[in-house]
Structures
1.
Amino acid sequence: MSGVEIRELEAFLVLAQELHFGRAGERLYVSQSRVSQLLRSLEHRIGAPLVERTSRRVALTPLGESFLAGLRPAYEALRATVDDARAAARGMGGVLRIGFQGTVDDYLSRAIARFGDLYPECAIDIVEIPLSDPFGPLRRQEVDCAVVLLPVAEDDLVLGPVFSRQPQTLAVSVRHPLAARESLSAEELADCRLIGIGGGAPDYWRSAQAPALTPGGLTVPAGPGVNTLQEGLSLTAANRGAMLLCRSTAEYHGRRDSLTFIPVEGLPDSELGLIRHRLRPSAQASAFAEALAEATGPSQPAA
């Protein structure tokens, strides 16, 4: 361990995510050759290659995979310790920027109030993030943490706590043929054009919000894609399609004369989770995660 530099470890961690020297350099704000230099120095200290390089691909060696598994939690703990010490030295000041999708529900409101009571010297900014880009604002450092719809399966993001498990409802126009129904089965989604999520969200995430198949394997017709909740509600009100929403969001928007919300039986519950960036820990964001955990009770298992 003698002489190992934190920059070498950071270069390896980012390269292990990107598997591309150019992109790793862009994220680290250094040249591609500097990333190579840092990696060679780390490999020299360890005594064996961590990465296999060819003209077409970059891959971790078995030793690199093992090293990554041990390094990542240790690095996170180290960064968190440093951030905690900095925060203690100057107080929990500054600004905490919290992103959210959809609506600020009771859980999130209580957590924000709890954090404000504990750290009155820290300002809080609440930023709505688009449905179509759930992870981008955090990666671009536009927010310090974000409350997003599950699932989350991103290597560079830390998930938790998970909360607000809610049954799903189908938002439809009052002119829709199903508008008078008191409930629907998941298989009846095959009779609806389902509004989807556009933009750059991962396929697995978009599929969870607007499935292409019912649980029984029937095709669900695809409606238009939207970037925001308001776009989706507007298209739904215009009878351009139907949109799946969690029960709390449906209740929040339930007084619209042009929409009705129908419980759907047989779908997995909707869940929310707080995400933070794995390689850019924030003392304020960590403290907010604790406040959210207190406000929501024991974390629920991720779906």
Note: Residues 168-268 form a domain with the D-Maltodextrin-Binding Protein; domain 2 fold (CATH 3.40.190.10).
2.
Amino acid sequence: MDQINTQTEPEVAQKAPKRIKADVLVIGAGSGGLSVAAGAVQMGADVVLLEGHKMGGDCLNYGCVPSKALIAAAKKAQAMRSGKSFGVKPVTPQVDYATAKDHVHKVIDTIAPVDSQERFEGLGVKVIREYGRFISKTEVQAGDTVIEARRIVVATGSSPFVPPIDGLDEVEVHTNETIFDLREKPEHLLIVGGGPIGMEMAQAHIRLGSKVTVIEGQKALGKDDPELASVVLDRLRAEGVEIVEDALAERVSATAGVTVHTSEGDFSGSHLLMAVGRKINLERLDLEKGGIAYNRGGLKVGDDLRSVSNKKVYAVGDAAGRYQFTHVAGYHAGVVIKSMLFGLPSKAREDHIPWATYTDPELAQVGLTEDQARKKYGPSLSVVRFAYDENDRAIAEGKTEGLVKVMVVRGKPVGASIVGAQAGELIGIWAMAIANGLKMTALSNTVLPYPTLMEVNKRAAGAYLGPKIFDSTMVKRIVGFVQKRIP
């Protein structure tokens, strides 16, 4: 009988962690973290950047970039179906779904070097490819390294939220982190969630040849102006997307592929995409050891994006608990750099933040919606609008479906909503106006090339100013007086 060796191996003494110091420590290499690191190091600060997963974060790898690349592929397919009115015979496109996904990954690979470890090390940033966790108010451990920093920026972003629906563990569940790696075209894609991600993926997949059902517990695109959102929803339904609203997902089963059981009935398909929201990535940070107050929405910070409980710590992007947009993270970076590096007062605003949903037609918003503006300003509010079907460029290109709506108080825009072609581009002029306190006259005085879609914005400004000029009795009296005296 063999003798069992009961002796244990001698304990290996734990190696003391390496210790380094930095002016600025950035936790997370997504949009916000990379912007902070790049800006700070180029201004002379000693910067350490931590990333335990992929450089570029969610936007590059799972969000903005791959979704827009897939949408672009879907637009190519749709163009082949929709040329009849232009004298081009419509044909049914032969879609190679796997090749469309190759395009997605080629786009990611093309952009990735801008966010790469090599580029940031070339700038002078010390990059450590480990997750970080606080061990004190001024120290963070990442792997075998402890970093002591004068200022620490939490830029950990967010991840897809998968709600605890009964039966989800019985089926394969896709999120935006996995759907872009799917090589086989879904025969029938079920999407739980009717927000921007859900609606963008719905239209992309219907155009690429899948059947699509969107299941939304409340109202689809519910955070946008309902009048404008309805234009997008009507288009998606016309293209074949089934949109079921006020249908709370109660249970999921592996029946007939996958079935979502809701308060409005059961819906079966071949694949399931969950697109119900995001959760902030805080679980690895040990924030309590850093003396950092937080909740499910992110770190508790002031308008200066500084922790309310540890003044050495800032948060940017999703971790700051505000708008969850890539461009907001970049904006936040500028706010905290001004404070950290120059010691100047700096606060983040939200009234000038635009956003867009990249469906066709696109849907964009900045500032207050009509409903929000009416509640805040009451009778002081003027709402002006201009339709795409009165724009010559839109008419020429057959893109007349759309509307610009601007909320104006005392001559200044306080919000703008756009639905239509290139709405995500056109909203920029209103974001600039609100950010800089410009009046409607600034837009009406601007000369634009003809014919462009941008003219819808100028015409909206004209719709506000026109009645004040042409319907004014005083103006008419002045003109009459001058005309009688001109030789």
Note: The chain is about 35% helix and 25% strand.
3.
Amino acid sequence: MVDNLWKTYQMGVEQQVHALQGVTLRIRRNEYVAIMGPSGSGKSTLMNLIGCLDTPTEGNYWLNGHLVSELNDDELARIRNKEIGFVFQTFNLLARASALHNVELPLIYNGTPAAERLDRAQKALEAVNLGTRMHHKPNELSGGQRQRVAIARALINNPSIILADEPTGNLDSKTGVEIMALFDELHRQGNTIVLVTHEPDIAEYAHRVVHIRDGKIFSDQPSSRMQHA
């Protein structure tokens, strides 16, 4: 839940840029929401705030009942690791590490014992149909397989929210459809998904589409998929 969120950047002495201007948005558990908007609309800023990568200039953000807009950097890092699973357009995988090692990284950061880490990482890869590729490095995997590794990594801590930023941006359309089918499955399993995209056909996979323009919410409505359901 974000309430009256502002993010202002100081550009020199006189000039301020209001990337977000009083955004209020409630996302419930197990919702599937797409955030859309052109470049410079504020959608990436909003995603960074929801993902605890940044703090608002003004306003409040609650995640699972915690007021995270008031936390310091260390506390934000802890919440990020525990509550939020990130999936990026560029996959953000370690090139020299196997799929398995890439997936277990968040567990290394939070001190999970090695045997449990391996077990959970293997299960996460099996959940995204990559059980047979877990010892391959990213350069031995296709774009779609790399994104599946990234999704498995995002799931490893059973996060409250999966945040996907243009998750099909570097994929061909057939592979993009496969990845979006995987998000459908994750949503059916009870995950809350927030998808940031500028592609209308990708946004339509979500159940609710929020349009941002000039730092404000322009519209918030069910996707046509839900309207026809």
Note: The mean pLDDT is 90.
